[in-house]
Amino acid sequence: MGYIAPLGNEGFLPLIWNAFIGIIVALVYVKGIITLMERLVDNNMLSSDLSRKIIHIAAGSFIWVWLFLNTSDGYSYLLNITVPFLFFCTFLYKGFKGSPDDPDVKTMSRTGDPRELLRGTLYFTIIMIIAGTFLFGTYVGMLMMAIVGWGDGIAPYFGKRFGKRKYKTLGREKSLEGSFGVFLFSIIGSLLFLGLLGVLGGDVNPDLAVLKDPGINLEGIFIVILLLAIITTIVEALSPPDIDNLLIPASTIITLIIVDIVLGSSFILGSMLRFF
């Protein structure tokens, strides 16, 4: 269970608490950020491109709610995927039926085409759902969201803002500065979540640690994060448009499976055993 679950473990108390945190608090958090970005874009105080990146990073950081979920009943923690699922349905509907004037289209698409919501944006909600279900409370779930949320999230803006040294991969133009942004912010996001969900939880009380023990020391975890940042940078550079929201999480999972096999750790293999 997380750091704070004050209602206790009796009866339906975990369900009530997790509904409050996983649905109400999470919805206020995500919707509040989206509403703020919409107002800033409408008032020409922020570009739609930057608003997309801020929403991308903030949404990817939704796993902070893991800190407060009570897992004692073994199932109601899954309510943490409620908000990602609602947005999945919203993007699916607006991708087909929305108009360029729709606030979600204006703040979360590059060109104002509603069908853009059916690609990278929709894929991102799928990854959030996977993280909150099959990978809940695991290092692989944490690292996946940190890298796709922060590393991939900041890359396009970082490249446009600072990119001067251009290169091409598979016909797509990239910049060394943008690729460095992927590498740097993949590490920053991973370390931020590691401190929030892992190291601090274990130091306070091992029984309350949010992340499951991967069976490797802290120095080893830092090396794994560095390895993932390098691989993510390469995958992002080679990825077709919009598919990076799927390829980067996939590469994270595959890399950690290989790490588990080589080092005998349990970043993912040991974590997945708890579902069978």
Structure description:
The chain has helices spanning 13-42, 48-60, 82-97, 103-108, 120-133, 139-162, 176-204, 218-238, 244-263, 269-272, and strands at 166-169, 172-175. It has 276 residues and is mainly alpha-helical. The chain has 2 domains: 1-133, no CATH class; 137-276, no CATH class. It has a two-stranded antiparallel ribbon with strand order 1-2. A hairpin with a 2-residue loop joins strand 1 and strand 2 (172-175). The radius of gyration is 19 Å and the shape is globular. It starts with 12 loop residues before the first helix and ends with a helix. Residues 200-208 and 272-276 have low confidence and may be disordered.
SSE arrangement:
Elements: H1 13-42, H2 48-60, H3 82-97, H4 103-108, H5 120-133, H6 139-162, E1 166-169, E2 172-175, H7 176-204, H8 218-238, H9 244-263, H10 269-272
Antiparallel strand pairs: 1-2
Helix pairs in contact: 1-2, 2-6, 3-5, 5-6, 5-9, 6-7, 6-8, 6-9, 7-8, 8-9
Structure characteristics:
disordered C terminus, two-stranded antiparallel sheet, globular, 3% strand, 64% helix, 276 residues
Output the strand order for the largest sheet: 1-2
General shape: globular
The tally of domains stands at 2
Residue stretches low in confidence (pLDDT < 50, at least 5 long) are 200-208, 272-276
The count of helical stretches stands at 10
Fraction of residues in β-strands: under 5%
Biggest sheet features: 2 strands, antiparallel
The overall strand count is: 2
The end-to-end distance, rounded to whole angstroms, is: 20 Å
Helix percentage range: 55-70%
Q: Provide the gyration radius in Å.
A: 19 Å
The overall pLDDT, averaged over residues, is 83
SSE topology string: HHHHHHEEHHHH
Helix/strand/pairing category: mainly alpha
